[in-house]
Structure formats: C-alpha cells, structure tokens
C-alpha cells in the first residue's frame, strides 16, 4: 500500500524553526479529529477521508496511514465523527452520516482494518464517545433521538437510551464519574445519565435556546462536575451539574458554537470553534469573558474540530473544511487582550475611587444608576482625576479584570438620616447644629469630617445667626486672632523653623516661579490663581487649615488628643502641631508621587495647591501685612475657605459633606456669599440628590431640595410626585384611588390581591397590623377592637403558636 | 376580511400563527430593506410562479406602503438595483442548484447605486424563497382570487362547475378587463374551491390500509440496506421523478401579465437528474450545509428572522394530528418525512441517512404527481391533479401536504441560496 505522500503534499508542510504552528493538507474536507492516548498520533475523518497522522519528536506531522483506500467505500465511510480509544492504541471508531458506526482495528492484517460495522441507528450519528476506562465501551448519539451503548467485544448494541427529547447532538462520558455521561439535544436540553439506569436520565436542564451542538466535561478532577456547553444561541455556558444544575458562567460569542474543549491544566480556559462564518479557533478565559484570550486564524474555511494535547496545554490541534490539519502553538496565537485598553475601577469604603489604567490621563465618569427620575435634572456626573493615588500610575500588571463594585454606603445613609440641616426649624444656632452634625460623624468614626463641622462652626457661629440681625462690625473671631498676638513670638519661632525646613523641599520643587510671576512656569486659570491667593491669606493668618486636613488625612490619630471643640484648639493645639508634622507629611507625599505631572495642574486637587503654597511660605509675611486689616478680604477668606473645603471633599468623592455644609449654612436667614460657581454647586447638589434617591431617602431628598438656594434645584420640588405601583401587576396606580389597581378584576390579580382587613373586609389603605407567622391581620383599629372584644367575651385570640 | 390564503391555511391554526408572524416580520418589521422594496421583491417572486392571486395581493400592499405606481408597469421602470435581482429570482424559483457565489458577487460589486450588501441579500433571499413557496401553496391549494380583484367576480360566475379556479383565471388574458366589471351573483365566502367539495369518496378504504401497513412495516423493518444501495435508490428516485411524472397540462396562458415582472419567462424547472451534464453540479449533501448552517448565517445577517423561520419550519415538520383519513392515532412520521424527502430529492438535496425506497413505498403515484407538479410547475396544477391523490382523505389533510410542500420547497431555496451566499462572503 503506497503512502500517499506525493511531492505536492509535502510542499504543504511548513517547516520553520521559529514558527511552531504546523499545518498539513489532508486533501479534502475534515469533519473531526481525535488524538491517541500517547498523544503522538492523530486521526482525521471526513466525508471521503480517514487518515492517521503521526507527530514525530521534531514536532512535525506526517501521514502514517490512510484508511480510506480501495474502491468507493460508500456512505459508511462518510464520517461525521471519529474517536480514538483512550485506552487501546489500535482502536478507533468512526460515526457515519448514514447512521453506521465503524470500529477499526489498526493492528489488523491486510487492507481492510474494519473491525465491525454497527448499523443500529436509523439516522445520522452525530457524536461518539469511548468510555475513559473501559476500552470496549462505546457510546453514540444520533439524530434518531436515541443514544446507544456498544460493546465492541460482543460487537453489538448493549443498551438504548431514549432521550424523549429530540435529536442528539453530543454525548460524552464523564472522565471522573465512572457510570455517568452527558448528552445534549436539538431542543436545547442537556441530560445527565447513569448508564446502569437505562430507563431515564438522572437530571435534565434547559441549557440553550436552540440546539446544543457541543458539550465537554472539565478535565480537571477538582472540577469534575463542571460542563461546558455551546449552542446555536451563540453562547458558551458553564454548568455545575453536581447537586443542582446551575449555570456558573457564560461566554457570549459571535456565532453558533460547534465545539468547545477545556484547556488542560488551565482551569478557566477553553477553546471554541464556530459553526459558520467565523473560521478561527478561539481560546476564552472565563475571567475575561468578552474578548477571546487568544485566537488562531490559520484556516480558510469553517473549523470543524479541535483537540488540546492533554500533556501539553500549549498545543491545540484543529481541523477544517478547507482540508487542513493544523497544530497551533499557543505562543503564536493572536492575543487581542494585549491590544485592548484595560481599566479597573473600584470604590473604597471612604468614598474614594481608584482607577487603574495604562495612562494617568484617563478620566472616569460616574453616573447615578437610577437617576432621580425627574425631568429637570442635571446628569449626575462627577469626575475624578487619577493621580490622587500614586498607585494608579505604578500599577505593576494589567488592570484587574473586573472592578468589584461594593460601595458600602451604610455610613452615607446614617449620616444622611441623622444630619440636621435645617437649623432654624429646630431652633438651633449654627454652632449647635454643627456640633450635632459633628457628633454624628464622631459616632460613625469619621473624625475628619467631624472636625470640619466644628471648624466651620467656629468660623461662622457669629456670622450665621438664627435671626436676621447680622452685624458686620465687630467679629469675635477677629479677636481670637488678636488674642493670639501674644503668641506671636511663639509663632514666629515656628515660622522660622518651618521656613528652614521647607527651603529644602522648595528647591526640590523649584516652584518659586509661581511667585515670581513667571507665566511660563504655570499655566493656570484665574480660578486657580484665586485659590492660590486665598490660600496664601489663610496661611498668612496662620490658619493652616489645609495642611491640617492633610495631616489628618494621612494620620487620623493625630487628632486623637486634639478633639476639643473650642477656639483654644485653633490657637494653641494647632501651633503645637505645626512644627513637626508637615515636614513628615510632605516627605511622605513627595516620596509617594515623585515628579507627578498633576503637580503642576492647579485644578487637579486643591489640596496639592495648598501644599505648594506652604512650600513657598518664605514669601508670606508680605501678604500677611497687606491683608491683615482688610475686612472684606477677611470675609472673602472665610468664603474661600469653606469653598476650598467643599472642593476638597468633592474631589475626594465625599459629596455628602460638601453639600450638607452648604445646605446647613444656607438654611439660616443670614446670607453668606460663597465664591462658588452656581453651575458647579448645582452639579454637586444633583449628585447628592441622586445618591439620596438611590438609597430611597426621600425625606432627606425633599429636605435638601427645600433648603437649597439654587433655583434649578428648588425647581425639583415642583414635580416631586412619587408614583406608587400596584403590587400585583406593577402598573402605576391611578391618582384618584391610589390603593386599588385598575386591573384588579383580572385573573392574575386574584393571586396577589390587595390586603383586606379580616374584620371589616375592606382594603387596608394605611397601617396594616399582622402576625408575622400566620399573616393574619387588618386595620390597626379593627384589630384593637377585636382583641378587646375577644377579651371581654373570653375568646382566645391566638390563631397560631404566636398568640397573635 | 381575511385573505383567502389565510382562510385555507386556517385549517391548521398552529401553523397559521407561525406563518403570519413570519410573514408580518418579513414585510412590516424593521429591517434594512425599504418596505416598498420588500413588496416589490414579493411581486417579482410571485410572478415567477405566475400566481395571479399573490401578485395582486402584493401589488395592493406595494401601493399601500407608498410604492411608486410607475414601478408596477414592469421591471423596466424600477431602479436597476431591483432589476438586478431578476436573475437570482429566476434561478431560485426554478433551478436553485444553479445559484452560485458568482451571482452574489455580481450583485455586491459594480456601481455603488446598484450594489447590494450581504445583509440585504440575506433578506432578499429569504423574501424570494418565502414568496416562491407561498405561490406554491396558493397554486397547490387552489386559492381563489380575492373579491376585490378585477377578475375575481367574472371568475365566480363561471367556476361553479369548471375544474380549477386559478388556472382558468390565469388563462384569462389581461385584455378581458372590461368584462370583469360584470356583477356576479353574491357568492358565499368561497375561499377554496377544494374545500367546498366535501369528501365524497370513502370507497377505497383499502388504500389507507395499505399505506398504514407499509408504514408499520417500515417501522419494524431492520435496516440492512447497504449504503451503496441507498445511494442507488436516491438516483432511482431522482430518475423516476424526472421521467415518470410529466405534468399533464401544457403551457398556460396569461403569462403576458407576469412577463413585466420577470426576465426569461419561459425559464422553468428542469429535472435535476437531467441537469446540464457539463455544469457538473454535484448532488447537494444535506449534512455538508444543513439547516443549522443556514440558521447561523441568517441569524448573523438578518437578526430575528432566523428564529421565526426555524419555529415555522419545526412546526410544519412536526405538525401532526395522528390521524390518517378516517383513522386515529397513527404515527405519520415516516409518511411526512417521505414527502419532505421527495421534494428535496427533486431538487437534488440528498440525505445520507434516509432510505429513499421509503418514498416509493409510501407515496402513491398520483400523490407523487401532485407533489411534483406543485413544487416544480406550480402554475400547471389543475383540479384533476389535486383530486387525483388520496381520494378518501380530508381536505385539511391535503392542505397539510401543501404546507409541507411550502416549507420543504422554501428550505430548498434557502439552503441553496444561503450556501452560495456563504461562499461569496468567505
């Protein structure tokens, strides 16, 4: 028997030392392929083709045997599937489109190596499978809706399994459950059978919409209950068939999936091929489901079969209708994820959002998932810029695959519920209000924000009054500063200390340019400039508020002994801190974000600006003297201070504090002009309102709307109708009778009809009192009357064990 | 008012529902093709099979959807883009095996104004096949003209005894329009000439018995037919289909009206077995490009319709009332499959796993004649052919056969058309 190795065929071998992907042309369309147990031989089968190829030690493929010989063989040779016995090296079986199954003995002498032809099936055999342990046990699935078990020693059918479903598309023995096999069907079902029990399946579940073309048991023993299925609905689904048949995962693909194979030793990876249109073999990773992990594009027609080399997960064999058998090497696969943009986003418990990506210039947008449902609404978008967290740019590997969205908002809800925003209504002075709110934050444990409330109270306690009689002349606050005058020598000392220590960092940053007015060094908006100057004044006044916030940010424990809420804290405690803390704080910051570009961006973070200014403190005595006696500037200073606080919180994602501060301040009749951009504030408000709505804090939502001074926000209160839905049919209830649905006479309403009072038999519209065990209840009044009357007459009221 | 076709099909409500859903989707749902294009393609398809009824229906539909009346004057008055479909229409209607990737290539290349996109072509193929098969159904079941058709009345005055409705109406030349204005006596809602005739011949019960006996035998028979034998039987069946059953009636008049919508009006079905030898068109192996493949192509290019067609096809294929003439509780699977296979066989589609001798055993000669006439030369169907087969069967059962012919024929068109398109896309 001549080997069919002509010159032409050998020309199809692509020998290359660098490229390991090797393809062989088998001559005609291939429908299936299978590897032998030693993984060194591969059999391919097609309509007029049955050949065995050998993979030699140099990883070359050459033809070893051609079983499709002699005269026209007929339809028995028109194979739709082929399998190599996993236990015996000389045994293969083919399934024919006419329903015959042919077993081959490769060791047989002579030309005809057919062992037996089994023509039990009446229609096309779609898939055959050898038992993983017993070499003579063969299972087949056919379009005639049956699965049959054959014993190749007896050469006969030993069992018939009636699917009672539809044409069988795929059968496969479980590699680890000895008696178990799975079968998939044209009607979308997957059945698990125990072959000792021939009458019916163990379980069945609907896996896909339309035919399930393929299934594959997981090759890993630890995952032995996992099955991957692929079907006409363009999906690959992973099922756990252990105790309950639940879907573990799915992969959406672009076309029908005709074969799926788990990748050995890679627990989360599998390869698929498509039935039409897409000729590539795709490898998917369950952890990144929407982009193929890798794919191979060697074929020019539909890829019909794939098989991994069990002992080498880097090698995938595939065959195609274009007649080629290809050995793919994983390292030569096209890996689309290498070229995709990856982003990771997560929200921390403190409201911080971290974003990971390959550039630090990536912006992120956050949008409220629910929206407040009102027509005049700003889109609830805020944006953060990466760079606040140095980790973003230094993220070592690719971004995490999927951000775990677990924003814990219990703090948010607690604060929203317990904050007092409307001081005048509660007859509280602004200071009392702030103290209350600070104590709320203390209870949560957010000392920073608590302190901010107290500081704000300190600033404005004399400015914001319960009644409209604000005096602009003598501010006790100013006195506080003058009182601090005796400390001035003390302060000067610390100043000296500070400039001395700062001069170092100053040089490093080289940002003196800013004060020299060099336009090239800093391109910044007017707004930015304003902030800078205002900070200056703050610093000049010795406020040092920003650095302190920063300190607290870095190390909250610093506040541990500074929790007094009076002005003494401001004048004494603060000074005592100044000397040592900022230095280490700056060093920290510096080391964490060296030469970060956002340093030069004044808009990125008000906090950074603050820091920058402190660095240039050598200049400040000048500004200090200029501004000192200017009352209007002082007012502006307060405003800017609060503005900066708000900005600071906003930029850290804490929209709640920013908005609540503004609301609390504006709730008093005395008006404070904050240098705030209306559009920006409106933006904050709408974001906060969205969050409230999302958490169903409708009362708080209404309160904020009411207290806001922004016209656009106030307008929201004009249309704050919240519609109620019918519990049974989810339709909106009519405005006139809002407890009873229009469609209550429909059938399905009787299943979930509205609650009736047991006593008066009318619909309970308001309070409904009921026993939690037996759900027996009614109007509060009715129930009270009933209990009373029952007592009077001595009738027991207990209907269930709970004595309701 | 329900259309006559719907009323006939209403004998099988289960199928009717699927059919109407699909029909509605094809003509009225969102899709790439403009509505007037869809109606016009439908007219072209129906005209190919000279189905007066359907052409008229779709003309009305075309105008209702704001189509240009000018277009109804014929192919010379429509955009070149539509006219280019004529060749495809011709081949799909009569000899679908001649459709090649080249035809689709020609349509997708050329002038930008006449160029078709692949997704549009999938829609075109589905539309063409759909209306070819409806035309087959209308001819096969003898659906009368709608009452508002100019010639519908004239026809009723003459047909109470005349053999076939639409054949005779087709015979009327367009010139006699004046005559058609004549008032006819208010006829009842006569939908279907066939339905009006109650089954009166229950004489030959023996026939049913024989058929059932054969089916039972096939069920029990252990298959030991060699595959070569099977292949040979397919050839025999193919040969016989071509030789034995020549349609009885000659060419039908009235073609002049349809000629405006078609090119080469004389082009018609040619037996697959007698196909041009030099063309060397191989037998279509169903397993190589099955319905699953066609489904995948459709679902990726023409979203939504694939599921509808699949459901419709499944419904038609599995539709059974487990009755056979006067008998109840009969498994008619093999009979239904034989009809299906016979249609596919005549169009050269071979199933490896089907034993084609079943066709011979189960389908009596008059039935074969009917199937052959309806699915290959639908316009030549006559009352005699319809009455000739299954004499003691109910009309609903004959309509059932018609539905199967409709679906089988539609699948043939889709398989050939989409296979060629797939090759073109590649």
TrEMBL record, chain A:
Region (Disordered): 477-525
Gene Ontology cellular component annotations, sorted alphabetically: cytosol; GATOR2 complex; vacuolar membrane
Superkingdom of the organism of origin: Eukaryota
Family: Belongs to the WD repeat WDR24 family.
Function summary: Catalytic component of the GATOR2 complex, a multiprotein complex that acts as an activator of the amino acid-sensing branch of the mTORC1 signaling pathway. The GATOR2 complex indirectly activates mTORC1 through the inhibition of the GATOR1 subcomplex. GATOR2 probably acts as an E3 ubiquitin-protein ligase toward GATOR1. In the presence of abundant amino acids, the GATOR2 complex mediates ubiquitination of the NPRL2 core component of the GATOR1 complex, leading to GATOR1 inactivation. In the absence of amino acids, GATOR2 is inhibited, activating the GATOR1 complex.
GO molecular function: zinc ion binding
Keyword Oxidoreductase: no
SMART domains: WD40
Keywords: Metal-binding, Repeat, WD repeat, Zinc, Zinc-finger
Pfam families according to UniProt: WD40
Biased composition (Basic and acidic residues): 485-509
Name of the protein this chain belongs to: GATOR2 complex protein WDR24
Originating organism: Ciona savignyi
Residue stretches of each WD repeat: 118-160, 205-249
GO biological process, one term: positive regulation of macroautophagy
From TrEMBL, chain B:
InterPro entries: AhpD-like, Sestrin
Cellular localisation: Cytoplasm
Keyword Nucleus among UniProt keywords: no
Region (Disordered): 156-186
MF terms (GO), sorted A to Z: L-leucine binding; oxidoreductase activity, acting on peroxide as acceptor
Entry keyword set: Cytoplasm
Catalytic activity: a hydroperoxide + L-cysteinyl-[protein] = S-hydroxy-L-cysteinyl-[protein] + an alcohol
GO biological process, one term: positive regulation of macroautophagy
Stated family: Belongs to the sestrin family.
Protein name stated in the entry: Sestrin 2
């Amino acid at each position: 028997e001549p080997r069919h190795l002509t010159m032409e065929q050998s020309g199809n071998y692509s020998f290359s030392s660098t490229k390991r992907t090797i393809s062989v042309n088998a001559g005609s369309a291939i429908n299936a392929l299978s590897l032998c147990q030693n993984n060194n031989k591969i059999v391919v089968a097609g309509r007029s083709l049955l050949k065995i190829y050998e993979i030699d030690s140099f990883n070359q493929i050459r033809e070893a045997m051609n079983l499709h010989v002699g005269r026209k063989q007929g339809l028995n040779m028109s194979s739709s599937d082929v399998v190599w016995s996993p236990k015996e090296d000389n045994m293969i079986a083919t399934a024919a489109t006419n329903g015959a199954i042919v077993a081959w003995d490769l060791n047989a002498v002579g030309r005809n190596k057919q062992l037996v032809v089994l023509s039990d099936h009446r229609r096309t055999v779609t898939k055959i499978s050898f038992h993983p342990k017993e070499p003579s046990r063969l299972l087949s699935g056919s379009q005639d809706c049956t699965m049959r078990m054959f014993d190749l020693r007896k050469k006969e059918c030993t069992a018939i399994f009636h699917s009672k479903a539809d044409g069988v598309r795929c059968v496969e023995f479980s590699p680890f459950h000895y008696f178990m096999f799975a079968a998939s069907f044209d009607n979308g079902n997957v059945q698990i059978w125990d072959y000792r029990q021939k009458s019916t399946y163990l379980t069945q579940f609907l896996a896909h919409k339309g035919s399930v073309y393929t299934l594959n048991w997981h090759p890993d023993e630890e995952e032995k209950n996992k099955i991957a299925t692929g079907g006409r609905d363009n999906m690959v689904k992973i099922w756990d068939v252990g105790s309950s048949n639940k879907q573990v995962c799915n992969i959406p693909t672009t076309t029908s999936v005709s074969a799926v194979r788990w990748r050995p030793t890679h627990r989360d990876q599998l390869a698929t091929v498509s039935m039409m249109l897409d000729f590539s073999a795709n490898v998917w990773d369950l952890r990144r489901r929407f982009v193929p992990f890798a794919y191979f594009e060697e074929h020019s027609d539909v890829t019909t079969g794939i098989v991994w080399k069990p002992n080498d997960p880097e090698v995938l064999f595939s065959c195609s209708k274009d007649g080629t058998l290809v050995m793919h090497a994983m390292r030569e696969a096209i890996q689309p994820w290498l070229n995709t943009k990856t982003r990771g986003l997560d929200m921390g418990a403190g409201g911080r959002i971290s974003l990971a990506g390959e550039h630090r210039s990536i912006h992120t947008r956050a949008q409220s998932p629910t929206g407040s449902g009102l027509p005049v609404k700003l889109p609830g978008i805020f944006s953060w810029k990466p760079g606040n967290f140095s980790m973003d740019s230094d993220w070592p590997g690719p971004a995490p695959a999927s951000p775990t969205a677990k924003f814990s908002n219990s703090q948010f809800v607690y604060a929203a519920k317990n904050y007092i925003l409307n001081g005048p209504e509660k007859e509280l002075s602004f200071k009392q209000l702030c103290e209350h709110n600070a104590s709320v934050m203390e209870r949560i444990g957010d000392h920073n924000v608590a302190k901010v409330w107290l500081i704000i109270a300190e600033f404005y306690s004399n400015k914001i009054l319960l009644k409209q009689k604000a005096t602009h002349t003598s501010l006790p606050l100013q006195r506080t500063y003058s009182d601090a005058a005796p400390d001035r020598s003390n302060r000067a000392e610390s100043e000296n200390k500070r400039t001395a220590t700062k001069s170092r960092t100053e040089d490093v940053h080289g940002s003196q340019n800013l004060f020299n007015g060099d336009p090239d060094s800093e391109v910044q908006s007017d707004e930015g400039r304003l902030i800078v100057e205002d900070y200056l004044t703050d610093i000049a006044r010795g406020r040092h508020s920003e650095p302190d916030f920063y300190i607290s940010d870095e190390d909250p424990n610093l506040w541990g002994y500074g929790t007094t809420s009076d002005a003494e804290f401001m004048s004494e405690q603060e000074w005592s801190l100044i000397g040592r803390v900022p230095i280490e704080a700056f060093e920290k910051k510096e080391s964490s974000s060296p030469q970060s570009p956002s340093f030069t961006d004044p808009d990125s973070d008000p906090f950074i600006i603050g820091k920058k200014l402190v660095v240039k403190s050598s200049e400040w005595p000048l500004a200090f003297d200029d501004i000192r006696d200017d009352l209007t500037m002082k007012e502006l200073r307060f405003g800017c201070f609060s503005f900066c606080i708000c900005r600071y919180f906003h930029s850290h994602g804490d929209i709640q504090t920013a908005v609540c501060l503004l609301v609390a301040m504006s709730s008093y009749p005395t008006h404070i002009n904050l240098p705030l951009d209306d559009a920006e504030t409106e933006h904050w408000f709408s974001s906060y309102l969205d969050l409230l709505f999302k958490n169903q804090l409708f009362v708080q939502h209404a309160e904020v709307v009411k207290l806001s001074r922004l016209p656009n926000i106030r307008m929201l209160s004009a249309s704050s109708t919240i519609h109620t839905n019918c519990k049974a049919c989810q339709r909106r209830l009519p405005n006139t009778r809002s407890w009873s649905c229009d469609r209550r006479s429909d059938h399905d309403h009787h299943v979930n009809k509205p609650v009736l009072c047991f006593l008066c038999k009318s619909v309970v519209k308001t309070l409904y009192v009921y026993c939690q065990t037996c759900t027996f209840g009614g109007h509060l009044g009715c129930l009270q009357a009933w209990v009373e009357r029952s007592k009077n007459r001595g009738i027991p009221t207990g209907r269930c064990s709970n004595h309701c | 008012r329900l259309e006559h076709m719907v009323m006939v099909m209403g004998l099988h409500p289960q199928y009717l529902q699927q059919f109407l859903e699909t029909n509605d989707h094809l003509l009225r749902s969102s899709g790439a093709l403009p509505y007037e294009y869809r109606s016009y393609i439908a007219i072209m398809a129906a005209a190919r099979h000279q189905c007066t009824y359907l052409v008229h229906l779709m003309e009305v539909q075309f105008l209702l959807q704001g189509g240009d009346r000018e277009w109804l004057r014929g192919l010379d008055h429509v955009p070149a883009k539509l006219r280019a479909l004529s060749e495809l229409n011709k081949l799909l209607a009569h000899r679908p095996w001649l459709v090649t990737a080249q035809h689709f290539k020609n349509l997708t290349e050329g002038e930008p104004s006449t160029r078709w996109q692949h997704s549009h072509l999938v829609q075109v193929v589905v539309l063409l096949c759909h209306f070819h098969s409806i035309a087959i159904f209308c001819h096969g079941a003898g659906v009368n003209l709608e009452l508002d058709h100019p010639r519908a009345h004239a026809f009723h005055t003459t047909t109470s005894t005349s053999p076939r409705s639409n054949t005779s109406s087709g015979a009327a030349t367009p010139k006699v329009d004046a005559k058609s204005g004549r008032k006819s006596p208010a006829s009842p809602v006569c939908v279907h000439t066939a339905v009006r005739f109650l089954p009166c011949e229950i004489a030959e019960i023996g026939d049913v018995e024989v058929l059932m006996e054969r089916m039972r035998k096939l069920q029990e028979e252990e298959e030991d037919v060699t595959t070569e034998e099977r292949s040979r039987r397919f050839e025999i069946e193919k040969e016989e289909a071509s030789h034995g059953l020549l349609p009885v009636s000659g060419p039908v008049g009235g073609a002049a009206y349809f000629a405006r919508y078609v090119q080469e009006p004389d082009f018609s079905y040619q037996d697959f077995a007698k196909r041009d030898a030099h063309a060397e068109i191989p037998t279509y192996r169903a397993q190589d490009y099955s319905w699953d493949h066609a489904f995948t192509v459709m679902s990726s290019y023409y979203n939504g319709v694939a599921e509808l067609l699949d459901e419709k096809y499944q419904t038609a294929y599995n539709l059974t009332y487990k009755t056979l003439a006067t008998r109840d509780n009969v498994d008619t699977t093999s009979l239904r499959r034989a009809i299906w296979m016979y249609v596919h066989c005549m169009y050269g589609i071979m199933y490896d796993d089907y034993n084609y001798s079943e066709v011979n055993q189960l389908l009596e000669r008059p039935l074969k004649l009917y199937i052959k006439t309806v699915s290959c030369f639908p316009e030549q169907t006559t009352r005699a052919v319809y009455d000739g087969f299954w004499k003691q069967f109910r009309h609903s059962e004959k309509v059932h056969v018609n539905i199967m012919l409709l679906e089988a024929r539609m699948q043939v068109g889709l398989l050939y058309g989409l296979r060629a398109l797939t090759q073109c896309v590649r």
